[in-house]
Amino acid sequence: MVKTTATASAMSSSSSEVESEAELIPSFPNDIALNIFARVPRSYHRTLSLVSKPIRSLLLSLRFFDARIALHSTDPIFYLTSSDTRDSWYALYRNPFNPSLFAPFRIPPIPSSSHLFDAAFAVVGPNIYVIGGTVCGSIPSSEMTSFFCYGRGGVPSSSVWVLDCRFNRWEEGPTMLAARSHAIANVVDGKIYVMGGSNSRIMAEMLDPAVGKWVELPCPFMIDKPTQIKQWIYLTDVCGERKWVEHACPSVNLDSVRGEASAVVDDKVYINTEVGEEVYHQVVFDARSGKWECVVEREDKLYLGSVLVDGVLYKYNPRGKIGGFDVKVRVWKESDYIDEGWRRAENDTLSILAYADGKFYLIWGDDTVKCHEIEVKWNGDGELLARICSTQEIVSIPRHYAKHHCLTVFL
């Protein structure tokens, strides 16, 4: 049975449904009123909730969210969290009077007594899944980094927390089969696939939220298990020349993967993993067939940790450029600096490229988070062009936030 912790603002669905039967709009049937309200942009919902108690109850009902999905009227909401997921979360809502601007709404942190670092994240429908991570006990907030966490006895976790973004409510989800930290998580056809980040024999597992139970995914790439896969590596030959050669790799270690080094293309999960100092694999899992393979072409590996839009994987270079990898023609292009005077250092607290509602957003910052709306397009010569359209300062971030994550949920 899933345990639930609700915020003060959350209302039970049963009471919401009862109150929603009250008259919403005078002289209008409630079904028609529901159809009207479901089309209103989410940025206006706070104002709309002040009109009457029945309308406020409707906006917090499951029926209302189902109607928005059926009408394809959901809006993208960005959720920000730090590396320590017990810190407060922020939902970024659009300003109703200026859609290019965002207003932060603070969300209570995970109701846990321990600090949790380096978790994996997945979004399924209105829910954000916080998967595994490194659990730490009582550490001063000024030292809240994963470095101190590991140094003070942090251990991987098999726990799963679920944020229902409709009601800002946290629930404990199904516990994983293996404890994981620095794992990767991807969603294919509504199912969550988690890989790596564990010394357990269970290197990969899958959760179908509708079933609520993790299932082990048989994986041929086990730690210290010899493989017959060949991979390209860059070596110096007997004449002193550096060149690519094909090399029989002794093993593939999924424990070396990181969350930013994966992508889903055509129901296949692509994962970058390291084997030795100069040997790199790109492991591929086909979610439809359940089969694994390894990409051998040294030049044809996908650029992962990216945003997939119309067959192109886009990625932000922290030094100030946008790159795009065309999956079909397997060509990488990079824009000029999006701002010649703005070249960010690679160790910025936050620099994430997001895509929603037909627009790109670059969310970045150190002590203060800002959001750039970026226009990205290809010209007739196949060149990638990018420019900043607008900038909005969002929220001040405590200095102990070591790293941030940005998740997009449609509500």
From TrEMBL:
FKB95-like N-terminal Kelch domain segment(s): 89-222
SUPFAM superfamilies: F-box domain, Kelch motif
Domain F-box: 26-65
This protein's name: F-box domain-containing protein
